[in-house]
Design a protein that fits this description.
Layout (H helix, E strand, L loop, with lengths): L1 H46 L2 H13 L3 H14 L4 H37 L3 H14 L3 H31 L1 E13 L8 E12 L8 E9 L4 E11 L11 E7 L4 E2 L2 H5 L4 E9 L5 E7 L7
Antiparallel strand pairs: 1-2, 2-5, 2-6, 3-4, 3-7, 7-8
Helix pairs in contact: 2-3, 3-4, 4-5, 5-6
């Protein structure tokens, strides 16, 4: 019994000490919290200066966050009207407004000229680069929407270009120095003079083996009308011809079998025509390798 009483006394003493220690630690913790809050308030007061606001506004400008920058400059004017930075803030707001107004005008101009610029692009990949640049320069919602729409329209063309590039790799050829124009072909319809679209190019063998048979065909069409115009073909290398060695190239030129009767009216009002180029190597099926636009230029 005596032993139990001793143990109970010891436990009570320990509990009392723990409680005291807890109270002491709690007081220290509360004191630290109060000190931190005081420091935070002091830090906030230190930040409440025109100079600090100005630096934040300049940082927003450097990030091209113009609305945020204008908001901070406005706060400088409201909070520190006597500061010399207040007038500078007014000037900055004016500069931002003028810049945004000019940027909006430039964006509207870019939107208006976008269809023409995309039509002039040599490839769908080049057209996509035009959209990339436009989106980078103008972060307006309507510009982003237009760019997104045009990207969707280009996806099919971009995939088509990838397929054509792959076809060239499979065939082991490279096409360079493409020239297109209109001219009079005397060899059509029994010698009758016809103005026809004409194509000149150079084909290089980039494969590992000589090419013994090679032909090129062009399917001409009236651009934008989905109307076939005619075809033209050249047997670049046939039976009995010297094979095209690896690394060697050969010039190819031919016109459409269909054209317009030669007269001044057609020469000065040439229609818009494009052509799909198909190539066959070693007698295999024709592969679409390139789509070209016939230049509206007449060469006699």
């Amino acid at each position: 019994m005596k032993r139990a009483v001793q143990i109970a006394v010891i436990l009570i003493a320990c509990l009392s000490l723990s409680s005291c220690k807890y109270d002491e630690l709690k007081k220290e913790n509360d004191a630290l919290k109060a000190k931190i809050e005081a420091l935070e308030q002091e830090n906030t007061k230190l930040k409440e200066t025109a100079e600090n606001y100005w630096q934040n506004a300049v940082n927003s400008l450097s990030k091209q966050d113009y609305e945020q920058a204008k908001n901070i400059f406005s706060q400088i004017i409201d909070k520190f009207p006597a500061s010399e930075l207040a007038q500078k803030s007014k000037d900055k707001i004016g500069e931002i407004d003028a810049m945004l107004k000019q940027k909006r005008a430039d964006a509207d101009k870019a939107i208006k000229s976008l269809p023409t610029n995309l039509a002039k692009a040599a490839s769908a990949t080049d057209a996509e680069a035009i959209l990339d640049e436009m989106e980078r320069k103008f972060d307006f919602p309507d510009v982003k929407e237009i760019v997104s729409q045009k990207r969707g329209e280009l996806q099919e063309k971009i995939q088509r270009e990838k397929d054509m590039s792959e076809a060239l790799n499979v065939l082991g050829i490279k096409i360079t120095n493409i020239r297109t124009y209109w001219t009079v072909d005397h060899n059509v319809l029994g010698g009758e003079q016809l103005v026809v679209p004409y194509v000149r190019m150079r084909i290089e063998n980039v494969g590992a083996n000589p090419i013994t048979r090679l032909s090129v065909k062009a399917a001409f069409e009236l651009t934008g009308k989905k109307e076939a115009f005619g075809e033209g073909m050249s047997y670049v290398i046939g039976y009995g011809d010297t094979p095209l060695k690896p690394g060697y190239s050969k010039e190819v030129f031919f016109g459409s079998q269909t054209g317009y009767k030669a007269n001044y009216h057609i020469i000065y009002n040439l229609p818009k025509v494009s052509a799909d180029l198909y190539v066959s190597v070693e007698g295999r099926e024709n592969r679409l390798v390139k789509t070209i636009v016939i230049k509206n230029e007449y060469l006699d």
